[in-house]
Specification:
The structure holds 2 protein chains of 2 kinds.
Chain A lengths: L3 H5 L1 H33 L4 H16 L2 H14 L6 H27 L2 H9 L4 H31 L11 H12 L2 H32 L3
Helix pairs in contact in A: 2-3, 2-5, 2-7, 2-8, 2-9, 3-5, 4-5, 5-7, 6-7, 7-9, 8-9
Chain B lengths: L2 H6 L1 H34 L3 H16 L2 H11 L9 H26 L3 H9 L4 H31 L11 H12 L2 H39 L1
Helix pairs in contact in B: 2-5, 2-8, 3-5, 4-5, 5-7, 6-7, 7-9, 8-9
The chains are: A mainly alpha, B mainly alpha.
Chain lengths: 217, 222
């Protein structure tokens, strides 16, 4: 074991870690938008919308991420959309994460006491105002810790986008391994970066949880 | 992708499916046994050992499964661990799963009410008997849903093994796709196949869950 291999590659690994965080963050943000739509469909009064939302969650949680990623990748190629691989990577992460985020949001909406919506109706709030002023602020607060947890899961899942050639942490570790003939050091180095990222996020999650609990729910 | 093509590649697809099932079963077993052993060791509360166990769990839960596979398969030879892709895949799956199973079993043990353990001691049960007859059934009942859920997650993780060239289903399909230029159709079929597989496993899993929980609850009362 030669730790200096990791030190030599420190600059590459840092840049790769930034790519990993950026790709995952983009996945989380786009996933949130899609996930919110799916969640709205799942709690909608229309049965066909509810079923559509349910099917989305079932498919994107049931199909392995690598299969989804290659599907998006080949889908774009099949229909002649000449876009960089990063689009497929972020797209696949977002589509998959959306299914999990939809469930997180749905759980958070269910956790807001029913009486509050009813009270708002009794006070003459419009439907939009009930969402905007009563349900959403509380649901978002409740869902913050699980959403940060989802971010950690997505950081780990993003290692799969190395397969379509994105120079993120796993891919760069692989390159360092083949260039230096020191795979053990290269992958341990990459792993340490993942651990560091996830420890930071877990710390952030703990802070968020404490502050939200302090705010009195 | 014509049916003719699938027929021509049927032997390799079937063998790939066999390898998928083998890796899943062997990896899950390894993970369950290791995870249970880790959870038991942890209960002994030996300070340096507990620190090591916690580090092990954090390492395997904090890094991507793919990176762990590369570390074992490519990094292994540096420390004299020369494994075939399939063996490395099963070992990787088992180690990865064991970190999660260890936490699941720990939570299971924590769910056994302290009063039951005290009651067992007060009727004169030996610690071993308390473990076998009181704690284990209680812990397992509490852990079954999480175990079933993890087993379902592991069916999806087997796909990642294709990246280190384990000849499982995904690998065979990609080989077929490359040889016949049918990447999109093949991957589309795979998505449907895996969705059906995971749905079936989940349905089956929840049925097993109900039965095992009922059985264990009955045993615990008897």
């Amino acid at each position: 074991m030669k730790p200096e291999v990791i030190l030599h590659a420190f600059g590459y690994l840092t840049r790769a870690a930034a790519t990993t965080v950026a790709v995952s963050f983009a996945g989380i943000v786009f996933g949130f938008v899609i996930g919110a739509l799916v969640c709205v469909a799942r709690v909608s009064p229309r049965p066909w919308l509810r079923r559509l939302g349910g099917a989305y969650v079932s498919v994107f949680r049931g199909v392995p991420l690598l299969v989804q990623l290659l599907f998006v990748y080949y889908f774009l190629a099949e229909y002649g959309l000449d876009v960089p691989a990063i689009v497929a990577a972020v797209g696949a992460l977002a589509l998959s994460s959306a299914a999990y985020q939809a469930e997180i949001l749905r759980g958070a909406l269910n956790a807001v006491p029913r009486g509050q919506g009813e009270a708002a109706t009794a006070l003459g709030f419009s439907g939009l105002d009930i969402w905007r002023r009563v349900l959403l602020p509380q649901a978002l607060k409740i869902s913050t810790p699980p959403l940060i947890n989802e971010f950690i899961l997505l950081i780990k899942a993003s290692s799969l986008v190395s397969v379509v050639g994105i120079a993120e942490l796993t891919r760069v570790s692989m390159n360092i391994a083949t260039q230096t003939y020191r795979p053990l050091e290269a992958y341990v180095g990459g792993g340490l970066f993942y651990l560091a990222i996830n420890l930071c996020l877990a710390g952030l999650g703990a802070v968020a949880e404490r502050r939200l609990a302090g705010a009195g729910g | 992708m014509s049916l003719d093509l699938v027929w021509r590649y049927a032997p390799s697809l079937l063998s790939g499916f066999g390898v998928t099932i083998l890796c899943w079963a062997a990896g899950s077993m390894l993970g369950l046994v290791l995870g249970f052993a880790i959870a038991l060791l942890r209960r002994l509360r030996i300070p340096p050992l507990n620190g090591l166990i916690r580090a092990f769990i954090e390492l395997f839960r904090g890094t991507p499964f793919l990176l762990q596979l590369f570390l074992i398969y490519a990094g292994g030879p540096s420390i004299g661990l020369r494994l075939s892709a399939t063996t490395a895949g099963i070992l990787g799956l088992g180690l990865y799963a064991s970190a999660y199973f260890a936490e699941i079993f720990r939570a299971g043990f924590a769910a056994v009410p302290v009063g039951q353990i005290e009651a067992a001691a007060s009727v004169g049960m030996t610690p071993f008997d308390t473990m076998i007859r009181v704690m284990l059934p209680g812990a397992l009942i509490a852990a079954v849903p999480a175990i079933v859920n993890m087993l379902i997650i592991l069916t999806k993780e087997t796909v990642v093994l294709s990246i280190i060239t384990v000849p499982e289903l995904m690998y065979q399909v990609q080989t077929m796709a490359a040889e016949t230029f049918t990447a999109f159709d093949a991957i589309f079929a795979m998505a449907i196949f895996y969705w059906l597989l995971v749905e079936a496993v989940s349905r089956f899993g929840s049925r097993v869950e109900t039965r095992v929980t009922a059985f264990l609850a009955h045993e615990a009362r008897a």
